[in-house]
Specification:
The complex is a heterodimer of chains A (157) and B (103). Chain A is built from 3 helices and 9 strands; from the N terminus they run αααβββββββββ. By secondary structure, chain A is of the alpha+beta class. Chain A has 2 domains: 35 residues; 113 residues, SoxY domain (Immunoglobulin-like), CATH 2.60.40.2470. In chain A, the strands form 2 sheets. In chain A, strands 1, 3, 5, 6, 8 and 9 form a 6-stranded mixed sheet that branches. In chain A, a hairpin with a 2-residue loop joins strand 8 and strand 9. Chain A is globular, with a radius of gyration of 18 Å. Chain B has one domain: Immunoglobulins (Immunoglobulin-like, Sandwich). In chain B, a hairpin with a 2-residue loop joins strand 1 and strand 2. The radius of gyration of chain B is 15 Å and the shape is elongated. The chains are: A alpha+beta (157), B mainly beta (103). At the A-B interface, helix 1, strand 6 and strand 7 of A face strand 3, strand 4, strand 5 and strand 6 of B. Strand 7 of chain A pairs antiparallel with strand 5 of chain B, so a sheet runs across the interface.
Chain lengths: 157, 103
């Protein structure tokens, strides 16, 4: 019993210290990639907070964002394919958000000129939820949603 | 050091289609082990894809990206024989860079 408690304290303490160190900028995990990781945006729990962390306002609903390869019903929440195409001109980035995950933001992809605003990846979903595709184009944010039902959760015990 | 990525880059018309499968646990930090101890989060945070010195895709990921992440995208300007380089870094500071030739 006591040993378990020690383990918890130990692991908990380690994580906190690492987080603090990372926050203070002493340790920068993405250094070699010359690209920083937006911790604030990945910690958010609501669309409004995520938008704030990304530095954007309220996104506009758009029919020019299309999901492909994305199932209506996902059997395994640990591996849910998501494909997003943006038909909005000057698309700069595409983000994937999952409404009912512990943290909404799953991934942000920056699309430089010359790269097609179309990509697919795989994400985890804790439960049935909306998947949002958030597109930044010309400095403005656009969003589209798709409801995906999960029959087996992806977050485990 | 993580296992190599599986990368396929193929030229279709004037666009290069890149498909990459990375080998990574992508632990969320939400799960507990048999003793009820939280398994610390361990996931890829940044991914950069370059072609000819130019970034063609840059991504930031959270732990909600699946285990052994898969990404597919297309870019213009590639030619057969060119190299596509993909690099990732995770939250433990581990890194990996692999390259593939456009076929």
């Amino acid at each position: 019993m006591d040993r378990k408690r020690r383990q918890v304290l130990k692991s908990g303490g380690g994580v906190t210290l690492l987080t603090l160190v990372a926050a203070a900028g002493w340790l920068r995990p993405g250094d070699a990639a010359a690209q920083s990781w937006n911790k604030a945006a990945f910690d958010t729990k609501s669309m409004a907070d995520t938008m704030k962390a990304l530095g954007g306002g309220e996104p506009v609903q758009s029919k020019d964002i299309v999901f492909f390869q994305t199932p209506d019903i996902a059997e395994n929440g640990a591996v849910v394919p998501v494909g997003i195409i943006s038909n909005i001109p000057n698309t700069e980035s595409i983000a994937v958000l999952i409404e009912k995950n512990p943290n909404m933001l799953a991934a942000v992809f920056d699309i430089p000129p010359g790269t097609e605003p179309s990509l697919s990846t795989r994400v985890k979903m804790g439960q049935s939820s909306n998947i949002y595709a958030l597109v930044k184009a010309d400095g403005k944010y656009f969003v589209a949603a798709k409801d995906v039902k999960v029959t087996l959760g992806g977050c485990g015990g | 050091m993580a296992d190599p990525m599986k990368i396929r880059a193929s030229l279709v018309g004037d666009t290069t289609e890149v498909k990459v499968l990375m080998s990574h646990e992508m632990e969320t930090g939400q799960r507990k082990d048999a003793q009820g101890v939280v398994i610390p989060a361990w996931f890829i945070q940044t991914v950069t894809v370059t072609h000819g010195g130019k970034t063609v895709l840059a991504a930031q990921w959270g732990p909600a990206v699946s285990k052994n992440p898969f990404v597919s995208f297309k870019f213009k300007g590639g030619a057969k024989g060119d190299k596509v380089t993909i690099a990732w870094a995770d939250n433990r500071g581990d890194k990996r860079t692999d390259e593939a030739t456009i076929a």
